[in-house]
Amino acid sequence: MVQPGNAANERLSGKNGGVHISAKADYGMRALLELVAAYRIDPLQLIKGEAIATAQQVPVKFLEGILRQLRQSGIVASQRGAEGGYRLDRDPSDVTIADVVRALDGPLAAVRGNRPEDVEYPGASEHLREVWIAVRAAMRHVLEGISLEDVALNKLPSDVTELLAEPGAWQRRKP
Amino acid sequence: MVQPGNAANERLSGKNGGVHISAKADYGMRALLELVAAYRIDPLQLIKGEAIATAQQVPVKFLEGILRQLRQSGIVASQRGAEGGYRLDRDPSDVTIADVVRALDGPLAAVRGNRPEDVEYPGASEHLREVWIAVRAAMRHVLEGISLEDVALNKLPSDVTELLAEPGAWQRRKP
DNA sequence: TTATTCCCTAGTAAGTCAATAGCAAAAGTG
DNA sequence: CACTTTTGCTATTGACTTACTAGGGAATAA
Q1: Which of A135, A174, B5, B67 is the most buried (most CB within 10 A)?
Q2: Average pLDDT over residues B89-99
């Protein structure tokens, strides 16, 4: 098992295509889930960056940058000075995972760095674009369908739990 | 519109999280679709690397490396020397896009470079792993469900065409 | 005023990505 | 047997990204 936020024994297999959840997206989601927990007690309660960082075992200064990006996207609010901190600025049921990933890493899908609808294919590969569009649509379907509240309460939408119930969903594919 | 294989005006928005189709996966799929077209005439016909490269407007030497990886994965066969070239080594209906992406870029999904099932989350983010597993399952569902033949004949599975029919599937989300 | 806490810019080491160069090895042709 | 063609393989490159860290500036409360 990989320790959370411990950058020592990680990146065993440096290479990965398909979908990659970056450290920013992962840390950002974890920070937001901490803020959701506080929000459910008092929606205006402020939590310090360092408190989030230690709770989630994430590098503090790196997390600060992430929280700033989330504030600039209107997901989080912040206050400076003593007794300052961060809080959610929107209802947890209103913030989707897609919102978070887009705020931190940009567009959900890219083909060679371009939007899927912007690439064109000659001859035999004529219909390849449809495939990448479908991949993006699948990502959107999942990530736009799950809110922070869903994750915090472990109440995922039914079509997502169906995905999780698929045989082998929790195992890696044979290499 | 971005020209196929032209690396000049691309990479406008360098950053992207979520799913990224690499040049290798994109070029590899295009090369394979050329081979499928030949396969349908004669399953043993050999096509030269340079012919594929010019047909798909892809850098030759880069494509060579891709085709070699595909051969090492058993998807493609090759023969050296004059009158040599490449051909499909499996039936087009038997090769999925997931096979291609895995052969060229490794695992379909990663969280900070690790397999989704290998990361663990403390406290408030306890259930985040399920989300990433679901994302991977969604990717698998799409990419393992489409074969080279499906793309070549433009006959995608019904659940994929349903994804494409979703409103806004072809437009980017408002930034 | 002073301690606290977020805000912001810069920088950096390591790594990846996309591609190129060059030569070795095999296979067919004359 | 040369000789040409075509793939096999390794190494290298430059641009870029990722995951951080350093250090100071600005706001806020006691």
Answers
A1: A135
A2: 98
